[in-house]
Write a structure and sequence with these properties.
Number of helices: 5
Strand content: under 5%
Shape: globular
Number of strands: 0
Largest sheet: none
Structural class: mainly alpha
Distance between the termini: 27 Å
Order of helices and strands: HHHHH
Length: about 60
């Protein structure tokens, strides 16, 4: 099951609120991003854990 538009917006907003240094650490690796998402928005993490790599790449492109 994919993410809803609202869930995507929520993840982007949560990341956007992070200090730049923390954001860089979260996006530094797939593992770091997965750990952050699991602890910050577990219900979303559960929905996307099998496609986490695709989400991470998309998010990294958004914030680059």
């Amino acid at each position: 099951m994919g993410m809803t538009a609202e869930e995507k917006r929520r993840v982007i907003e949560m990341l956007d609120k992070l200090e730049r240094s923390k954001l860089e650490k979260v996006l530094a690796s797939l593992s770091a991003f997965g750990d952050w998402l699991r602890s910050s928005a577990y219900s979303i993490y559960c929905k996307v854990k099998d496609a986490l790599s695709n989400l991470w790449k998309s998010i990294c492109n958004f914030f680059s």
